[in-house]
Design brief:
The structure holds 2 protein chains of 2 kinds. Chain A is built from 5 helices and 9 strands; from the N terminus they run E-E-H-H-E-H-E-E-H-E-E-H-E-E. By secondary structure, chain A is α+β, with helices and mostly antiparallel strands. In chain A, 24% of the residues are buried. Chain B is built from 6 helices and 5 strands. Chain B has helices spanning 14-26, 39-47, 75-83, 102-110, 123-140, 146-150; strands at 7-10, 33-36, 63-66, 92-97, 115-118. Chain B starts with 6 loop residues before the first strand and ends with a helix. Classes of the chains: A alpha+beta, B alpha/beta. Chain A binds chain B through residues 102, 105-106, 109-110, 112-114, 116-118, 120-121, 124, 142, 145-146, 149, 153, 156, 160, 164, 208, and chain B through 13, 15-16, 18-19, 22, 69, 97-102, 119, 121-124, 126.
Amino acid sequence: MPRGHLPVRSYLAVPVISRTSEVIGGLFFAHPDVGVFTERAEKLVVGIASQTAIAMDNARLFDELRAAREQLKIHNETLEAQVAQRTAELRETIQELESFSYSVSHDMRSPLRAMQGYADALLADYQPKLDEVATRHLTRIRRAASRMDLLIQDVLAYSRVAKGEIQLAPVNIETIIGDVLQHYPSLQPDRATIVVNGPIPLVLAHEAYVTQIVSNLLGNAVKFVQAGIFPTITISAADSGELVRLSFRDNGIGIDSRQQKQIFQIFGRVYGEKKFEGTGIGLAIVKKAAERMGGSAGVVSQVGHGSEFFVFFKRA
Amino acid sequence: MKTAGAILLVEDNEDDVFLMERALKGARITNPLLIVEDGQSAIDYLSGEGKYSDRTAFPIPSIVFLDLKIPIVRGHDVLAWIRSNEVLENVVVVVLTSSSEPRDLKEAYRLGANSYVVKPPTAEQLLELAKAFKWYWLTFNEFDDTAASLS
């Protein structure tokens, strides 16, 4: 014992242990008499030590929590700033894309019209002077230009369906089918039999998109048919609770199961341009339009046994 | 007079001018055809300003074929100007454009276009259009020319 120090003859030390089993302190008791600290006193002090540990743990947790919250706040602010910046960037990109597709529709189609127009004019006005080769070359120029024009139109239609703002309203699909049937030469009774097995329930949709879906599916159904087979299509609808399943059953060439996914992708055509004309965008438009209206599109088919294309719509 | 008078074509693309003239000729449309190449010239022509002051040589048209994407004053603004002008309120304005964008179409009708036609891609189809146009607008449609003759 150093001089001046209290005369310690009894001593009791108990560690304060945190929840994580770490010694964070101790409780120390001393007494000048011998044998003061009984087992009961030790138990009591151990109890106090564990209470102390809980209190200190809580204080520490509180500090940590406050620090974490501070950190989170800073993080959130940075995140918000980042989101705002990216949104602004995205908006700019979308605007650029919109003005791009706008000038595609205006500027790119105009030289095409000139190419086609002058080729037409030559073919019509100079026919007697043109030999077979010249006529064939001019016809090819005209055909290539018209194919380019179709491509541009379809890409524009796709981008309109992909990004256009829509409002869903009750739509009568039967009326739309009637309009489409009137409009397209390839859908007339002398070129295809198209049966509508009504009634088709009202759906919640965007009319222009439904028109696009119906005309693309019917156009495909009469196009992808074995030579010599008269196209026959049955349109029907099934009500499945909140959805309406619209089905187009055809007697066409059918689609291999391995290609059934691919055909719904943009430029996902399966056949060469020589066999069946088209841009390879039509079904991508169908799928995108259906999805934008809260539905979906798909196909059930077997090669040689026709196809059934279906579209799910929200019920009105 | 109830039948159509002159036709004014507002078009800056010389190829489209050539093809349009050819189609109108092909459809045997014999109405005088006058051509201006930008929006400001269209307004000058229609208001009889400057070199267009001679109304015998540059008559107020019954029909205007209006392209939308034209220099100086854009087509939509020319259309709005025509519709705000009392003397021209009966002029039939046919928008003839390469744009099939819904917003162009909507704006054109909102501003008072009588018809909206997307330029057909082939000369054959343009000829069909000219024939259909002649059949309806130049055969059956009756024009109100009182306003024009007042000016």
